[in-house]
Leucine--tRNA ligase
Amino acid sequence: QTTYDVVALQEKWRPVWERLDPFRAGRREGAQGNPAPKRYALTMFPYPSGDLHMGHAEVTALHDVFARYWWQKGYDVLNPIGWDSFGLPAENAAIKRDENPAVWTYANIETQAESFKRYAISFDWSRRLHTSDPEYYRWTQWLFLKFRERGLAYRKNSPVNWCPNDQTVLANEQVVNGLCERCGAVVTKRELNQWYFKITDYAQRLLDDMAPLEDTWPSKVLAMQRNWIGRSEGAHVDFDIALADGSTTRVTVFTTRPDTLYGATFMVVAADAKLAAEIVAPEQRQELDDYLVGVRKESDIDRMATDRPKTGVDLGVTATNPVTGEQMPVWAADYVLADYGTGAIMAVPAHDQRDLDFAKAMGLPVRRVVDVPGAENPEETYVATVGDGTYVNSGSLDGLTDKAAGIRAIIEKLEADGRGSGTVNFRLRDWLLSRQRFWGAPIPVIHCPSCGEVPVPDDQLPVVLPDLKGADLKPKGVSPLAAAEEWVNVACPQCGGDAKRDTDTMDTFVDSSWYYFRYLDPHYEGGPFDPEKAREWMPVAQYVGGVEHAILHLLYSRFFTKVLHDMGMIDFVEPFTALMNQGEVINEGRGMSKSLGNGVDLGETIDEFGVDAVRLTMVFAGPPEADIDWADVSPAGSLKFLQRAWRLAGDVTSEPGVDVATGDVELRKVTHKVVADAEQLIESQRFNVMVARTMELVNATRKAIDSGCGPADPAVREAVEAMAVLLSLVAPYTAEEVWERLGHEPTVALAGWPTVDPALLVEDTVTAVVQIQGKVKARLDVAPSITDAELESLAMADAGVVRALDGRAVRKVIVRAPKLVNIVV
Ligand code: ANZ
Ligand code: ZN
C-alpha cells in the first residue's frame, strides 16, 4: 500500500492471520525439537452483555502485551477466550424481550467475538468456550457433585441475603454495603433452605497460600482477601443460662478478649438467632417478636455501625459468669450478628464501646478490669478503654500487665475448668450457591420422598435446562424451573419411585471458578479438564482483570483450585501465579455511564482511528493499573505516530539480510538500548514507558535517515525491524505492514525478539578533570555529550572535591565540558 489507510490494513491482514492461525497453543517447537517452554496468559472472560466496550478494549490490549511478548521471546503461549454466559443480565434482558435468554446471549457472543477478532487480540480461538453450553455445564454439575461427595456442598436452612428486586438469594460477597451488587436494591434477610459450598473449611489455607503471591499480586487484592477471610484469634467461653422452666442450657460465645471475662456484666444474643427464641422467658416473647420485625429489614452494615442508638430486648433470663459466679442479664439486640462467631457475646462494657453504649442505654453495670495508664475510668466517662494496662478486679490475673499473658492465663484456666478453649474465628461464611433463577446450571440433585437427596448419576449428566418456551421467567422467589413439570418430575435414580429435580440453578461464580481449567481442552470428554495438559500449562502465569473481582471470583477460584488439588487432580494449590489489575477507562474524570451521557463507544472509536491507534492509546495512557481518562488521551496522536512508524519502512533501501554489523554505530546503539530497555519495562509491567521508548527509536531512525547515515545504511534496517517487533505487541496491523514493506513474510508476531548485543549497550565515557587552584583533585567518568551545567554540578558534588574545598568559599568555576572543571577559591 502506498498510503497509510487503517481500514485497508485491517481488511488486508485479518484474513491472512486467520489462515496462518499463528497463536494456536501447543504447536510451537523449541530448540532441537524439544517442546518450547509454555506460558499461560489469561484475561478475565467477559459477560456477553452487548458489544465490547472501552473497558474490554483496555484490559485485552494490556493483556495482549504479555501474550505477544512471550510469543516473541520463544514461548509456546496459551491465550484463550470464552464467555461467562449464564447469569442475571441475560435473564433480565430476556424477560424484557420475552424470549429465551439463550437467544440474547448467543447473539451477543457472536457480536463480541467478531469485535475481538477485529481488535486482533492474539487469542487461540480453538479454545473458545461458553459456560452456558451443556458441554461445559455438564462438568460444572460434575464438580458440584464431587464437592458434595467430599462434604463440601450441602443444604441448610438459615437466614440468607435476599434481593427483593431480583427475587433471589445472594452470596455475602454479592452484598456491597448492604446493597445488591447487581441492581442496588437494599438486601434483606429471609429464612430459606439453600445450597452452600463449605469454603470455610479452607479459610486458613486461603490465608496461608497468599504468602508466595506477595510480590506478584497487587497488595490491595491480598489485603482485601485477608480482610474478607477475617481471621481472629480468641476463645470460646461457655455460660450456663437458667431458663424460665427451671432447666439450664449452655451457651458458648466467641471473644477476642477472654482476658476481660471478669468484666463481662451481661450477655447479648443476636435477636434473629434461633437461640434468642429458644431461651426467651414467656413474658418477653411478644416484645422479642415485635423487635425482630424491624431487625429483619436492617442490613448487616447498619447493624454493626458503632454510631447507632442501641436497641434491644431483655430476654428475662440470666447467665452465670464462669469465673465470678455472678448472674448476668441476657439481652437480645441487633448489634450482635446471628452468623458471626456463635451469634452470642459476653458484653464487656468497660472495654468495648458498643457494649458500653448498650450498657448506658439499658442501665446495665460497667466494671473496669484493665487499668490503662493515662486513661480515665470508663465506669465514669462512658469511654471504653481498649489499650494494654494492668489487670484489676480480675482474680488470678490481677497485676499482670501484658495482654498476651492475660489471654494465655485465662484460656488455661477455662480449659482446666472445662469452661472454654482457645479458638480461631473467621469472618468468612460458607458460599451460598443456589439461585432461584432460570439461566444457570441446574443443581444436579433429585429429591426423593423415600431416599432423600439423590445425586444425578454421572452418565445422566448434564442435566440440561428445559426449553421454557412461552414460560414466565419473571422472578417470583421460586425458580422458574419449578413450572417445567415434565422436567421436574423424574424417577428416583435409587428406588425408581416418583421424585423431583432440584429446581435451583447455580450462582454464575461457580461457572467462572474453573473455566481456566476447561480452556486446556474445552471438548475433553474424560473429565472437567485434561490433567496431562494441566501439568503442562498450569498454573496461569499471568492473569489480567478488574479489581472488582478481588474477593468474589478470585477467592472462589483459589478455593476451587485447592479442592481440585485435594481431589488429586492437580499438583499445585494456587491457580494464578501473577495478577494484574488494570485501571478503569473513564471520561472527563468520571466513570462512563448512560445517565452522565459521557460514554465513549468502542466501535465508533475504532471506526474513526483504527484498531492500532486505540490499542496504542490504551497501553500508552499511563501505568496499566492507573485509570485512563479518555478526555486526556489522544488517539489522533497515536494514529500520527503509527503513520510515522509506517513511513520509516518505506524509506529503508537496504535488502533483507544485510550485514547489520557494518551499520552506523550511533543508531545501532540506540536500537539495542531501546530493545534491552523494552524487555525490562515489560517484565516490570511499565508498558507505557516501553511505548515511549519505541517512539524514541522512531525519532532516532528518522533523524538517521534524513540527516545522518542515510536510508541505505544497514543500521536503519536493523532499527526499523526492531521497531516492527516492538510495535507488534500493541499495534499488530501496522507492525505487520511494516514487516512486509521490509521484505519479510508474515507474521511479524512470530519474528522473534531482537537479540541485544551487550557491546552496543556500553556507554562511551570521557574523563573530566577537576582542579582546585590548578591542582587536580578528582577525575570523573562522564558522557561525551554532558553539558557545562551538568558537569559543574557533578564536580561540586564529588566527595573528593568537597573534602578538598573544606568549606572555603568558591569565587569562580570555569567549566570546559566534557574535559575540565577549574575551581577558584
Ligand atoms: C468480649 C470483648 C471484650 C470483645 C473486649 C471485644 C473487646 P473480631 O475481631 O471482628 O473477630 N463479637 C463476637 N461475636 C459477635 C457477633 N456475632 N456480632 C457482633 N459482635 C461480635 O471481633 C470479635 C469481638 O466482637 C468479640 O470479642 C466480641 O466482643 C464481638 F474488650 O468479646 B468481644
Ligand atoms: Zn428414591
Q: What stands out?
A: Residues 232, 254-257, 260, 270, 336-337, 340-341, 343, 345-346, 348, 351-352, 425 surround ANZ (ligand 1) (CB under 6 Å). The two ends are 67 Å apart (CA to CA). The longest strand covers residues 231-242.
